[in-house]
Amino acid sequence: MVDRPNKPSAIDASTIDPQPQVSIATDSSKVSAKLPTGDSVEVLLHGATVTSWKTKGQENLWLSEKAVLDGSKAVRGGIPVVFPVFGPPPANHSTSNLPQHGFARNAHWEFLDKSTSESGPLSKKGGDDCVKLDFGLSPSSLSAEAREAWPHDFGLIYSVTLGRDGLQTMLNVRNEGKEPLEFQMLLHSYFKVKDVTKTTVTGLLGSSYIDKVLSPSGTQTESHANIPITSEIDRVYKSIPQDTTSIVEDGKPRFDVVRDSLSDTVVWNPWKEKAGGMSDFAPQDGYLRMVCVEVGSVAEWQKLEPGETFEGGQIVKSHI
Question: What pLDDT is stored for residue 203 in this prediction?
C-alpha cells in the first residue's frame, strides 16, 4: 500500500452542520420542510397551498378548523394561490367562464424538486439555512371543465422558500401558447394574530384603494397610517409606492410582507356575519384571530405574449 504523505484526515460527522429536511407524506398529499432551527413549512399539493409555517415553534398562518384538505374544495386558510382571475370573473373576458379566483387553488400540483441556495434573499449560511420547494401546474393537470373554460397553454412554477429569516413564495407564469394571454394572480395569505381588534396594518398610507364593502364600491385614498381591523374589511390597494406592508399586533411588529414585482395588496377580514355564513370557517370567532394581507396583481391584467414569462411574489418576515 502506498503511503500518502498528505493523507486527509477522516471527516468528523459531528462537525457537519445539520441540513434542512424535506419529506413527502405517505399519501403524497403534502410536502414538508424543516430547518435545523426547527422552523418549518407544509405545502398541500392540492392548490400548492401552504397550510403551515412555523417560526421558533409558533404558527404564523391561520387555518380554519373546518378547512377541507382532501382536494374537494379550496383550503380556507394558509396561503391559497389565486390564478388566473381574482374574485368573480368579469363578463366578456377570457376568464369569464371560470369560477371565482380561478382554478389554481383547486388544482392538483406536481412537486418538482427541492434545492438549497447560497445566494437567495433568505440564505445567510451557505445554503444549510434555506430550502426551496418547487411545484408545477400545466393544462394537463386541469380538469376538462377548467381546460375548456380557459383554453390557454401555460406553465406555472410556484416556489416556496423557507429560511431562517422568513418565508418566500413566488409564482412564475409562462405563456406556452401561440396567442397572448391575460391573467391576474394573488397570494391569499391568512396571518394568525392574537386579537385582531388590537391589530393594525401599516405601509399603505396615501395609496388608492377600492372598498368592496361599500356599495357601490369606489376608489378612495388611504388616510390612516395604522389601519384598524374592527369590522369587516375588504380593500384592494393598488399601485402601492413602497414594497412593505406590515401587520402590527398590540403596538409591536408581527409580520412584514414585502412585495416582489407586484404592486397591489388586498386587506381582508370577513368579520362575524360573513364568517358565520362560510361552512368551512371555524371556530365561529376565528375572524378575531386572523387577518389577510394578500399580495398580487389584481387591479389590472397582466398580459403575456407567446414565450414570455412573469414572476411575482412575496417575502414574509415573522417577528417573534
Answer: 98
Helices (H), 174-298: 271-276
Q: Which is more confidently placed, 241 or 6?
A: 241
Q: Measured between alpha carbons, how far is 244 from 272 in angstroms, rounded to an integer? A: 28
Query: What's the distance, CA 10 to chain centroid?
Result: 44
CB 223 within 8 A of CB 243: no
pLDDT tens across 297-306, in order?
999 999 999 9
Q: Of the listed 46, 188, 222, 249, which one is catalytic? A: 188
Given phi > 0 = left and psi -120 to 50 = alpha, else beta, which region is 29?
A: alpha
294 is catalytic: yes
Of residues 226, 188, 189, 186, the one with CA closest to residue 205: 226
Q: What is the Cα–Cα distance from 275 to 67, expressed in whole angstroms? A: 13
Out of 294, 305, 308, 319, pick the active-site residue.
294
This prediction has a pTM of 0.93
Q: Is position 249 annotated as part of the catalytic site?
A: no
Most distant CA atoms of the chain, gap in Å: 88
Nearest CA-CA partner of 109 in 44, 20, 196? 44
Cα(132)–Cα(120) distance, integer angstroms: 10
